[in-house]
Structures are given as C-alpha cells and as structure tokens.
Amino acid sequence: MADVDFTTIVxxxxxxxxVLHPTPxxxxxxxxxxxxxxxxxxxxxxMRSLYRYGQVSVCKPKFDEVKFCFSLRSxxxxxRRDAWIQRRAEWWARRRLDKSSEDVWDIRTEPxxxxxxxxxxxxxxxxxxxx
Length: 131
Description:
By secondary structure, the chain is mostly helical. It has five helices and no strands. InterPro entries: Pants/Emi1-like (IPR021475).
C-alpha cells in the first residue's frame, strides 16, 4: 500500500460510511450492538473461534461499542450518526493500515508452469501428483 496517512484514510472511510448509512436509522442501535456482544460470548461462537484460531473470542471491543453507543444517548440522532461514523471510520482506517494477508502472499502474475501435471508426466511407480 502506498504511503497514506491515517487522517486521509479516515476521511475516505467517513465518506464511504456516509453513503452506506445516509440516515440516523441506518446506524445500528444500542440493542443491536448489545446483541452482537452477547452473541460473541455464547458457547458456539467461542468454540468456533477456538477451532478456527486456537483461542477464544475477545469480546471486549464489542462491549466497548455498546458503552460508546450508550454514551451517545443524549445526542441528537444526526449527531449520534456522525459520532458513530467517525468512530467506525477510525476503526476501518486502523484495519487498513494494519498487516493483512496481502502483506504475506505475493500476487501471482502468471500461471504456474507445468501445472497441473498431466498423467503421462507422473513417475510410473508413484500414485500421487506430488513427488
């Protein structure tokens, strides 16, 4: 990724989120965020996380979202939407600047040579394609 600073990415994300969430009703409610937090803690979600990633889910960020939502209860609906969009844009910006699988894997620009191997090319005594 080119050298782009955090504030530029946040601005891009704010613009994108304003299009995705044009009205205050499009922003998730505190009840929805609380449901997401509870779903993170149920046994099925924890077992799935343990199986996939080797550790239980960390649900604190979801609880922080619930607390943030409740802290906005005194705001007008439009101000609440703007605050939520700003927080979410900063979250996406941090994710974009953090490492990803694209930092590990190189994009292949041409197909592999001699792949897949034809049956005639395999060794006569081997039953597998990988030697």
